Every structure is written in structure tokens, then in C-alpha cells.
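C-alpha cells in:
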């Protein structure tokens, strides 16, 4: 149903644009020139916590202003941006939402030249292999930056932004009653590029041209009865208000469910984090182990190898009497399960015994 309504609205817009263009054709050129709008380009740039509006028209750039959207409440945001947009000259304006470059992943890849005909579809198939994302979790677009006719290859620069980042920013802008035509990235769109960057997928209503022509004819006939339609406008307005209230109630209900889900998830994260903290507290610092070994080992013994894996320790070295080391180390409160991991050998050159021991570090017990 939503698609049909959107298609009707699109067709109606097309009809009225045609109607007014036909009316403009019969107005003298000197008069119509006074009302002709040149249009322009409205850019909404997000940089950090600030959103700014820039209007470009006739080769000139006008900075309309901006606002810290993190500190300002939603009501103030809508009021400020409505005031800024009201400064823009009316006409055919292309509205572009541009996200910070830090939110985007850019990468260049080499593709066959035939991929240029269906570049977006090819990039979707390559997404899993070329980036850490799945195509259904991101918005993306690609730009051809190099072409090699001899090798039949092209170099494509792909720009990828997580879907939740784009959707959240689109919802914020929609609350200001601004509907972007394109979504790009700040400092990615360059004037030299022939094709503007647009992360939103190219879509169409999917209706046949015959159906649109039929609707256009229907609107032409309906235009003659606009006076009668005005009688039903109050009823339609009441219906729209009821639907709006119902939508707000549904949105509030959905928001409450999301808050509960986030609360449960946060509780689980806090619990797992506390477990890791307790595990870390139970481990003795490496400096403490080295100090204990230094104090316990006799002066005629030394270690040339020490390996620690969690609570398991392996040491090897030389001692005057290797067998006496087991009792010496067992006397430490933080060392247990001391045993030889290899036979003791005699080093005739040094006149000492070579040993390999392993033991367990006793965890810290909280009181």
C-alpha cells in the first residue's frame, strides 16, 4: 500500500510540474523571467557533533550556519534548521546529506571493464570479499578513478558506511523536515568527479509507464473538480491526524521495547566485564613472581629460561644441587606442584647440574 501511495504522489508531482510548465509557456518571457527559479544545491555536512548547512548556487557558496546537535534538544534543532533552510532561494534544490569521513571505509579495487555497466551490483557481490562487511549491513557507492583499455580493467574506489550510521542520521534530518535526495561523505565528493557520490541505492517505484500515464490523465480530469474536493479536505485532515497519533503511539511502544532490550544487553555486558575484572585480580603480577624466585633460589643457582602460560610456569637453569630446589620453591606461599619436567644433567664444564622445573602459581584469594 505504501508503494502505491508513493507512486501516486510521484505521478501527481510530475503532472503538476507539467501543468505549470505549460502555463509558463503562455506567459510573456519578460514576465516569466521574474518568477523563474534557478534552483541550487543544499548540503548538510556532519562533522563531529556539529551539523552545518551550505547552499551552492550559480557558482557561489553560502554558509547558512550550523548547530551542535549533541547538546541541542530536538525541538531546538528543528527550529534552527527550519530557519536556516528558509533562507534558501526557492526552486529545484538538490538536498545532499554528507557524513563525516571518519564514518566511511574507502578502498580501491581492480575490476573487469565490463563491471562498469552494473557497478553497484558488482560491488555488492564483492563486498564480503573486499571489506569486513556484508552488503545488507552497509550503504555503499563506487567511483571509477582509472581505466586501462589495454588490460580491459578499471580501478574503482568504493566508499562504505554502516547502515545504522546512515539510518540514524537520516532519521535525525527527517525530524527537521528535511528529506535528502542523496547521501555522500565529506571530503570524498570532489568537483572533478563526473558522477556524484550517492550511498543510497537507486530505486524506482516499479510501476509501468502505462499506469503512470493513466494516473496523469485521471489527475487532469480531477483538476476540474478541485472545488468539490475542497469539501472533503477537513475530513481528510482529521484522518491524517488520527493516523499520525497512531503512528506516534506505535513509535513510542517500539521505543520502549528497544530500551528494555538495550537495558538487558547492558546488564549482560556489565556482568561479563565484572567477570574479567575478577579473573584479572586473581592473577599475581609477573614482578611478584620474579621477586619470589630471586628470594628463594640459592646464590649458587641461576635461571636462564622462564616461560609463563596463565598460572603454569616452566623454568630451566643451573644449580649446585638441583634436587634441593623443589623443597625451596615449595616453601613459597605462591608456588605449588613443583616437579622436574626433564631429567637433571651434569655440566662438567661448569661443575653444576642443569635442571628443568615446572610449577603452578597459586591464585590470589579475595578476603
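Residues out:
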Amino acid at each position: 500500500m505504501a508503494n502505491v501511495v508513493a507512486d501516486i504522489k510521484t505521478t501527481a508531482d510530475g503532472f503538476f510540474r507539467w501543468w505549470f510548465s505549460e502555463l509558463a509557456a503562455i506567459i510573456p518571457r519578460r514576465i516569466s523571467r521574474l518568477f523563474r527559479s534557478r534552483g541550487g544545491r543544499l548540503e548538510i555536512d556532519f562533522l563531529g557533533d556539529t551539523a552545518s548547512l551550505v547552499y551552492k548556487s550559480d557558482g557561489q557558496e553560502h554558509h547558512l550556519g550550523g548547530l551542535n546537535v549533541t547538546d541541542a534538544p530536538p525541538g531546538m534543532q528543528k527550529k534552527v534548521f527550519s530557519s536556516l533552510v528558509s533562507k534558501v532561494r526557492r526552486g529545484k534544490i538538490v538536498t545532499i546529506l554528507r557524513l563525516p569521513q571518519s564514518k566511511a571505509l574507502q578502498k580501491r579495487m581492480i575490476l573487469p571493464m565490463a563491471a562498469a555497466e552494473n557497478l553497484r551490483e558488482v560491488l555488492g557481490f564483492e563486498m564480503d570479499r573486499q571489506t569486513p562487511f556484508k552488503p545488507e549491513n552497509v550503504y555503499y557507492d563506487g567511483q571509477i578513478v582509472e581505466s586501462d583499455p589495454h588490460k580491459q580493467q578499471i580501478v574503482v574506489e568504493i566508499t562504505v558506511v554502516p547502515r545504522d550510521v546512515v539510518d540514524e542520521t537520516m532519521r535525525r534530518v527527517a525530524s527537521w523536515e528535511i528529506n535528502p535526495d542523496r547521501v555522500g561523505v565529506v571530503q570524498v565528493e570532489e568537483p572533478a568527479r563526473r558522477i556524484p557520490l550517492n550511498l543510497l541505492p537507486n530505486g524506482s517505484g516499479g510501476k509501468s509507464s502505462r499506469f503512470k500515464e493513466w494516473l496523469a490523465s485521471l489527475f487532469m480530469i480531477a483538476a476540474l473538480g478541485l472545488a468539490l474536493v475542497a469539501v472533503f479536505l477537513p475530513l481528510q485532515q482529521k484522518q491524517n491526524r488520527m493516523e499520525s497519533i497512531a503512528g506516534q503511539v506505535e513509535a513510542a511502544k517500539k521505543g520502549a521495547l528497544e530500551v528494555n532490550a538495550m537495558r538487558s544487553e547492558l546488564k549482560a555486558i556489565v556482568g561479563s566485564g565484572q567477570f574479567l575484572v575478577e579473573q584479572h585480580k586473581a592473577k599475581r603480577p609477573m614482578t611478584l613472581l620474579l621477586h619470589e624466585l630471586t628470594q628463594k633460589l640459592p646464590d649458587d643457582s641461576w635461571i636462564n629460561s622462564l616461560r609463563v602460560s596463565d598460572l603454569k610456569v616452566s623454568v630451566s637453569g643451573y644449580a649446585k644441587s638441583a634436587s634441593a630446589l623443589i623443597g625451596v620453591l615449595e616453601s613459597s606461599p605462591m608456588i605449588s606442584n613443583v616437579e622436574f619436567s626433564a631429567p637433571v644433567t651434569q655440566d662438567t664444564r661448569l661443575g653444576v647440574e642443569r635442571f628443568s622445573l615446572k610449577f603452578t602459581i597459586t591464585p590470589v584469594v579475595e578476603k
